[in-house]
Amino acid sequence: MEWFTASGYGLSRLVFQRGLAVLYLVAFASAALQFRALIGERGMLPVPRYLAYVPARRIPTLFRWHYSDRFFAGCAWGGALLAAAVAAGAADAVPLCAAMLMWLVLWGLYLSIVNVGQTWYAFGWESLLLETGFLAVFLGNARTDPPVLVLFLLRWLLFRVEFGAGLIKIRGDRCWRDLTCLYYHHETQPMPGPLSWFFHRLPRPLHRVETAANHVAQLVVPFGLFAPQPVASVAAGLVIVTQLWLVASGNFAWLNWITIVLAFAAVDGDAMADLFSVTGPSPAPSAPVWYEVLVVAVTVLVAALSWWPVRNLLSRGQRMNMSFNAYHLVNTYGAFGSVNRSRYEVVVEGTADTVLGPETEWREYDFKGKPGDPRRLPRQFAPWHLRLDWLMWFAGISPAYARDWFGPFVERLLENDRDTLRLLRHNPFPDAPPAHVRARLYLYRFTTWRALRTTGAWWHRELVREFLPPAALRRP
User: How far is residue 426's CA from residue 446's CA, in Å, rounded to a whole number?
Assistant: First the structure.
């Protein structure tokens, strides 16, 4: 079928697939290095306990048949190695069916991880990686030109990501409608980056322009993705520029990067090759019939599953980052329907004193990404995902968000648990575990230009209240 493939998108597919493979690599490596403390056999939310009470039909996963920390690590590192091979071009060096199998294994392994990740994996970009990874299975390799239908499905996914995020904002917090949300957002976002202080200190008229531009990028530009070229390429370019702005202003794991990767699938590959003076892949032979039939079947499946996210988009009660099936296919997306006006941080401290009193010396635990020491400039971690740091932000909003895991976290600090301490930047008790651990809630604000120059502090913090009273291990 002559209409089935689009030879002009070979370079677009190449950029998309290599970029997606790199993000898979980041996701698998992140899982491998963090899982023991979070969901391991002795983790805060152990996988075996979770599997014991959740029906199999709700969470398709390899770990339903067997779980051990060693097996999980093998799956995670195996996924990372396979992703690295695909990023290096291995999928283009094998027959089409073998390349599809490689992408399918990546998707299946990460699906197995996400479905047992519980609260630690309850982020929209997990489902986005899985949905994107599923479509990548059917995008083909160098043995065939990119199928038009899959390219369209990738645009449909990008449209839902952007338009869903725009709708949830305009329907949500009033500050999005009066263009004032960015008066607060750069200061109160989950994990600020090294430039967030400077973004926050931009003049307020620029914040209003920033907000208005965001609405255009998310509510108007996505429709251009379905237009003929070069309009679709221009729309994709605007999405990429917008996402790079977000990359510079904060840490959102791989959310912005996977959106950028998706946008490249809508760019005219021949035009991109001319623009950057590179040579794109050569046109490939016609696709085999079995592949054409499979792509058509997948397109019909996605069209049928799209009923639920479309209904959600059109609903006044729109929900964001929701999966409608256990395989995380054709989801709904969105971010920051409401914006916090103040930033509250949970500061965790320990002491070696067995008897507490006014003279007790409390030493603070430092996290890698979340704000702590007011004099420490926030770091850039994205696309790496610091799961504990992200959930600590939610804990600062309400203790209810931390009900399941904060107690086990404190218990492991009291034990100087090695895997848990690896999630932190600094352990103030390297030689012996603390006798007591407590947590206090602080209000954090970015300092002014004058305060930064005179004190060197990026943050000003004020004690609000106790979050957790001093706790000690129960002795038998």
Answer: 23
